[in-house]
Design goal:
By secondary structure, the chain is α/β, with parallel strands linked by helices. It has two domains: 233 residues, no CATH class; 176 residues, no CATH class. It has twelve helices and twelve strands. Strands 7-6-5-8-10-12 form a six-stranded mixed sheet, with helices on both faces. β5, α11 and β6 form a beta-alpha-beta unit. Bound molecules: zinc ion. The site of zinc ion (ZN) has 8 residues, from α4, α5 and β4.
Length: 422
């Protein structure tokens, strides 16, 4: 099609990043498609739709499909409602295209409040917003693609938490105007396996990297936000701090425990954890930096996470030290089997050295030392108070930054708390 070639020409000239990714997609004319759609392997377009667009608008829709693929929208829907997923995905990418100076056709979905958000998050917000408002009695067949629509309508059981999925029409008050993303499939049209999905993830990440290199070489282009956004969107969510901590603590456990009775909780992650008591697990020391003044509610959540971890690794005891500039009150000792509770204590300046020194003075050799802090403070020989270098595993669970290591090498594993609510 002439229009298509003209739009492509502009893409090749002005948008090297998009061009690289576009080149990997097969282009197929298809009257059965409402507007244009992609499944990650090909772009299908209806010539009647294409001819309604100006060349800059057509360029936008082509780049829009490219971004659906770069963001892996075709493999991330899960059992979410097909139509609402498409709406969310459009919000996730159109802002980037507009910022890149492209011209969005009318009816395009864009809202600044969603800029920089992942489609999954936007989907959740849209769903919450719609709440339980009754679904408009929409025609099920009006959306663009028949196969994906059929797929989204069937099969998902009543147990799904997604009330707009299943057999009901989508509860969309918004239509997907054009440029849909369909579920990716295997070559033979069957559902993608997890292995195939990770293969697609790897390929896409390397293509994005290549495309951004090409753009860099070209010395100009519009793909900066797109490549950053895509790489962020397709990166797996970081694990929450308590899961990272638990995995690290398990890895640091003695290996000569019986594996005859694996704990089922960890089978999915490939970690086989013995289900019996680890008599070899010594004391767990927990320091709470009280200068950051966690609320009682936050301390409750932290305590809950610690109890979960303690249930798994079963230390001999858990010792809790509260410290701001100095240690506040007597450290609390919880014996095996006791529930750990935390309380608000102190709240002055910050010094990290005192709890390490206390452990040394007490002659303890903890299984691990976990410090909860916002990171604002010094640790080491040049920091406040004297300092004894710990020779046991240390974990900094920090809500803001890593501590400042003063006169010593960094030590311990820094685990960032992603959500201020722990
Ligand atoms: Zn779209």
């Amino acid at each position: 099609m002439k229009e298509l070639q003209q739009a492509e020409k502009r893409m090749f000239r002005d948008h090297p990043f998009y061009t690289c990714l576009y080149a990997a997609l097969k282009k197929i004319e298809d009257d059965a498609v409402n507007t244009m759609c992609t499944d990650g392997r090909e772009i299908r377009y209806n010539p009647a739709f294409v001819s309604t667009l100006t060349i800059p608008e057509l360029l936008f829709v082509l780049c829009h499909e490219v971004l659906h693929v770069a963001f892996l929208h075709q493999i991330r829907r899960g059992d979410r409602d097909f139509k609402l997923w498409n709406v969310a995905c459009d919000y996730a990418i159109n802002g980037i295209l507009i910022k890149a100076g492209l011209t969005m056709p009318k009816d395009g979905l864009h809202d600044y409040q969603y800029d920089g958000m992942k489609a999954e998050k936007i989907y959740q917000l849209l769903k919450d917003e719609r709440g339980n408002s009754p679904a408009p009695s929409g025609d099920q067949g009006e959306s663009g693609d028949d196969t994906a629509q059929a797929d989204s309508q069937g099969g998902e059981g009543e147990t799904s938490t997604d009330t707009s999925g299943g057999n009901q029409p989508a509860t969309g008050d918004q239509e997907v105007p054009w440029g849909e993303v369909l579920d990716g499939t295997s070559e033979d049209g069957s559902k993608l396996s997890e292995v195939e999905k990770s293969e697609i993830e790897r390929e896409t990440a390397s293509r994005i990297y290549e495309a951004s290199q090409v753009e860099k070489k070209a010395g100009s282009g519009s793909g900066g936000d797109a490549s950053r956004g895509a790489l962020e969107a397709i990166a797996p969510d970081p694990m929450p701090w308590h899961e990272i901590l638990q995995d690290s603590l398990i890895r640091s456990m003695p290996c000569d425990v019986s594996f005859s009775n694996p704990n089922r909780r960890f089978l999915h992650s490939g970690l086989i954890v013995a289900g019996n008591v680890y008599d070899q697990t010594g004391d767990l020391v927990i320091a709470i930096d009280t200068s950051g003044s966690q609320s009682t509610e936050e301390l409750k959540i932290i305590a809950g996470r610690i109890n979960e971890i303690v249930d798994v690794i079963k230390p001999r005891s858990v010792i809790v030290i509260y410290c701001d500039y100095t240690i506040n009150g007597e450290p609390q000792v919880f014996e095996r089997g006791e529930e750990i509770t935390l309380e608000e204590r102190g709240g002055g300046g910050t010094a990290f050295n005192p709890p390490f020194n206390w452990v040394e003075r007490e002659g303890l050799d903890p299984h691990a030392f976990i410090y909860f802090t916002d990171g604002f403070g010094d640790v080491g020989p040049d920091a406040y108070h004297d300092f004894t270098d710990p020779d046991y595993p240390v974990f900094w669970i920090t809500t803001y930054s890593a501590p400042y290591f003063c006169g010593c090498e960094e030590f311990g594993e820094v685990i960032e708390v992603r959500d201020r609510n722990y």
